Amino acid sequence: MKAYVFPGQGAQFVGMGKDLYDQNPRAKELFEQANEILGFRITDLMFEGEDEDLKQTRVTQPAIFLHSVILASTLDNFRPDMVAGHSLGEFSALVANKALSFEDGLSLVFKRAMAMQKACEIQSSTMAAIIGMEDSQVEQVCKEIDEIVVAANYNSPGQIVISGSLPGIDAAVEKLSALGAKRALKLPVGGAFHSPLMEPARVELEAAIQAAPFANPICPVYQNVNAHPSSEPANIKANLVSQLTSPVRWTQTIQQMIADGATSFTEVGPGKVLQGLIKKLDRGMETQSA
Questions:
Q1: pLDDT tens string 170-194
Q2: CA-based angle 74:93:240, to the nearest 5?
Q3: Which residue among 10, 144, 193, 209 is least enclosed by CB atoms within 10 Å?
Q4: Which residues are catalytic?
Q5: What is the pLDDT of residue 176?
Q6: Average model confidence (pLDDT) for the chain?
Q7: Cα–Cα distance between 82 and 56 in angstroms, integer?
Q8: What does the pLDDT read at residue 188?
Q9: What's the pLDDT at 77?
């Protein structure tokens, strides 16, 4: 069974999507439509901008979404049996999978990005990558910190990202390093994504998601919050809302997709991060870029 996966924030790079824009008339049309919807030329930032501009959440999220969704629309052999997306990538997966229109998907992604950026400004917060420790060890340390600190991204066995207040992350990094983590490194992000500190963004986005017209996808989408397949619009919406304050269970998602019969994974979007994570779970699994 063919599985397609869509990357999230962090996969961006200057120049992303320019080959699509230059070589495919349909892709160019969609990029220009996106410029109109957003009210600014995101293509200028994607193709020729500065790294710092592209790292702004309000730019990063729609940029990755556009690259992924427009690339998927140009694939002649895009016939997925199952799809999944890492965090933001879940929106890309839903649009590529016909559960949501391009226009509605882009509007929701931009609202999500703006709401998350606003939530980041309320309290100093960040994230940190923890390498070389069992998930249960990391979870226990997070519980022991007298601040908001939670497991945010279960990326692969031995690779987990924690999220929380700045003093909380500092304390957790120090403690996890002392306990033997191979790496415990704060990430250059502006906020505590996938943590309770994103509650203001969740509240702001919920109404927009519930109001958007979702359809039944062409195949099941494995969602971040529970790593299970969803096909019913009401469930998909509820899980998208919960995603903002819940961890990305990527390890569990890939494991479930393999258990359900996935024989190959195609990454659709910038970079090859997800392929690397899948290989850590199953070295023999066939992975490729779209």
A1: 999 999 999 999 999 998 787 899 9
A2: 155
A3: 144
A4: 87, 194
A5: 96
A6: 95
A7: 31
A8: 79
A9: 87
Of 260, 253, 10, the closest CA to residue 154 belongs to 253
- Mean pLDDT over 208-233 rounds to 97
Name residues whose C-beta falls within 8 Å of residue 185's C-beta, 6 or more positions apart in sequence.
Answer: 128, 129, 131, 173
Residue ranges of domains in the chain, CATH in brackets: 2-121+196-289 (3.40.366.10), 123-186 (3.30.70.250)
- The tokens for 73 are 């629309």
If you search the block for the tokens 């957790």, which residue do you land on?
172
Question: How is the chain classified by DSSP, letter by letter?
Answer: -EEEEE--TT---TTTTHHHHHH-HHHHHHHHHHHHHHTS-HHHHHHH--HHHHTSHHHHHHHHHHHHHHHHHT-TT---SEEEESTTHHHHHHHHTTSS-HHHHHHHHHHHHHHHHHHHHHS-EEEEEEESS-HHHHHHHHHHSSS-EEEEEEEETTEEEEEEEHHHHHHHHHHHHHTT-SEEEE-S-SS-TTSGGGHHHHHHHHHHHHHS-----SS-EE-TTTS-EE-SHHHHHHHHHHHTTS-B-HHHHHHHHHHTT--EEEE-SSSSHHHHHHHHH-TTSEEEE-
Q: Which residues have a Cβ under 8 Å from the Cβ of 263 and sit 6 or more positions away?
A: 1, 2, 286
User: Quick one: pLDDT band at residue 10, thresholds 50, 70, 90?
Assistant: confident
Question: Model confidence at 55, in pLDDT bands (50, 70, 90)?
Answer: confident
Task: Report d(CA 83, CA 257) in Å as an integer.
Answer: 9
d(CA 226, CA 248): 9
Sheet holding 221-222, edge to edge: 229-230, 221-222, 82-85, 2-6, 264-267, 286-289
Nearest to 105 by CA among 25, 217, 261, 252: 217
